[in-house]
Amino acid sequence: MTDLAMAVVAANGKVGSAVVREAVGRGIDVTAVVRHQNTTPAQHVLIKDLFDLTAADLKPFDVVVDAFGAFKLEELPEHMTSLKHLADALSYSKTRLLVVGGAGSLYINPEHTQELKDTPDFPQAAYPLSKIMSRSLEQLRLREEVRWTYVSPAANFVADGPRTGKYLLRGEEYSTNENGESTISYADYAIGMVDEAVSGDHIHQRISLIGE
C-alpha cells in the first residue's frame, strides 16, 4: 500500500490500462483520465479530453502518466501537441510527468548522434510515428520546469505478452538482453513504469525498459 496518487491519461488504451492494472494491484490510488466510459479497474475516473485538462485538474496527483497514442498519419502531430499541453499544465508543479515513449529515438552510438529509427533495418511503416515521437522528446528535454521522465520500451513492444515480473532498466541507448533480444510485454513495461512512479529516481531523464 502506498499514499501515491496517480492519474493515467488515456487509461483505456492498451498501455494505459496495463499501467492502471499494475498500479491498482499495488494499492496505488489511481484516477483514469478518459474521454468516454472507463474500462479499467481504476478507483476514480475523470472523463475529460486530454486537450481540455487544466493545471487544476492535475494538481491533486503526485504522478501523471501520459499514455496517449495516435497512429493514423494525420493524427501523428498530436503526439507533440498533447505532450506540450500536459507539460504546460504541469509547469512549475510538484507533480511528476511520466511519458510512455517510443523505441525509435533510442541512440545507437555512444555520442548520441544516431537513433534507432534511422538505421537501415528499422521498419519504414513505423518511421513517421517514431520521427514525431523523437521530436516530442526533444521538446520535452527543454522543459526544465516540468518534472518529467520519458520511458522508452524495447524495440519489440508486445501487447499481449506475458507478465513475467522481470525487466531490465537501461538508459538512452538501444540495448538487448543476454539473448540478444530487445523485447518487452506491455505488462512488464507497466511494472517498470509503476516502479518509476513510486521511486521518482529519473527526473529529467529518459530511461528504457527491456525484458529479461
UniProtKB/TrEMBL annotation:
CDD domains xrefs: BVR-B_like_SDR_a (cd05244)
Q: Which residues cross the membrane?
A: none
Q: Taking every annotated instance into account, which residue ranges of this chain make up the domain NAD(P)-binding?
A: 11-190
Q: Sorted alphabetically, which InterPro entries does this protein's record hold?
A: NAD(P)-bd_dom, NAD(P)-bd_dom_sf, Polyketide_Oxido-like
Q: Which domain of life is it from?
A: Bacteria
The name this protein carries in UniProt is Dihydrodipicolinate reductase
The record lists the organism as Bombiscardovia nodaiensis
